[in-house]
Amino acid sequence: MIAFVEWWKERLLTCPGKYFFHIDCPGCGLQRSVIALLEGDLAKSLALYPATIPIFFCVIFTALHLKFGFRHGAAVIKWSFILTVFIIVAFYLYKLVMRTPFGFT
Question: At CA 44, angle to CA 61 and CA 101, rounded to 5?
Fold first, then answer.
């Protein structure tokens, strides 16, 4: 696992929005957040991208629901998806408001 994380750190994808327009996209930080989570640093993962764990929950629960057919699985998926989208949008708006003008530090 450690070798995979180190390999991934060296090959992070560049965000086209940030590269061309110098503005974070709603997904900026997800890769680094997943790496921090794989390294066991939950606080850093949440600071980098708060929606990482809800995204994992949505994906894993959806797969389990498709396999086992939980009684209220569709409602859980719907509400967890809504919560995840809300977290992504809220964090993105927070980053846009709190960043310095034109993305320069």
Answer: 110
